[in-house]
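Hey team,

Filing this mostly as a record. A colleague (T.K.) asked me to run one chain through the structure pipeline before their review meeting, and I want the input and output archived in the tracker in case anyone asks later how it was produced. No errors, nothing strange. Just documentation.

Input sequence:
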Amino acid sequence: MTKFIQLHALTVYAPSNLNRDDTGRPKTAKFGGAERLRISSQALKRAIRTSANFRERLAGNLGERTQRLGDAILRHLRGNGVDDAKALEITRIVAGIFGKIEDAKDKPQTNIKQLAFISPEEKVAAFELADRLVKDGIDAFKDNKQAGLAAGLLRRADTAADIAMFGRMLADNPDYNREAAVQVAHAITTHKVVVEDDFYTAVDDLKTSAEDAGAGFIGELGFGSGVFYLYASIDRELLLKNLGGDPALARKAIEAFVEGFAKARPSGKQNSFAAHALANYLRVEKGSQQPRSLAAAFFKPVWGDDLLAKSVEALEGDDRKGGLIAQMNGVYGALFDDARTLRAIPGRPWDPSHDSTLEQIVAFSASE
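Output structure:
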């Protein structure tokens, strides 16, 4: 029985700065006493959620994470001839169901203070509620109270695949929170890293030879490179529950996520580095057993001239010893029922009898 789908990937990124900290340098983490490059789970999830394949596969079944629902409602009401004061009051009532509304004078009075994850059904219901308040009067809100309006607007399950996967929190209406069916770890390099600095200049094309020879602009940028280990786990039962029991949509969501996990990359400084990488190694495991990360394979940093091959070896082992996958199975018993692996390792021939294609991996992941 497939309850959990686990994904393990190794992706090689050339010099880049995909995910920056508050100083603009690549994010890092200490692991096994060594500094590693890091890509946050938030950056990875957004890269997947906004990727072309994800949006194409799940078109019509995606939510919107925004503070600006009120803007659209206000324009809608004004466009229908509602006067400004009444339109603003109704907008604040409806948008306020998703979170507290801004009251600072220097900020839009229709904005939700926090980002709200809103499903397509809820967005339609929000516009319908605004129209009803115009027709029935705002006193209908005062009689019904916010909890009553929330019950008619918010959903505990719907067709928003990204909300079902990544969850949401509504602080003022916790009954309509959605527990995430997909857990994504921060990606870290399998080896030690040293963040390097790039001193760069920009030339003023219109500067004449009679002027000074200096650059028009100078700057400094941190970067790093390495083999990243990525891990994610999908709770298929929870995903199905969050999607209102729609198995076809759950399969589409799994397919979109798995493809995105292999192909999507954060957008940070891509114009400067063009770090467009695909997973060189992708392993998918299915079963009812408790999920477990394989990050411990890299607690002792891998080293040598071929960090990718050494990273694969730490997971799978070689002719002399087993890797962490076999070792953990030996100690705990089988930690999955079935698995497939994609390998694109330089210097290693691709073997169709042993290695899966991405298309096969995606199909395997989504199958019952």
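Quick notes for T.K.: The chain has two domains: 4-59+180-194+225-366, 65-159. The mean pLDDT is 94.
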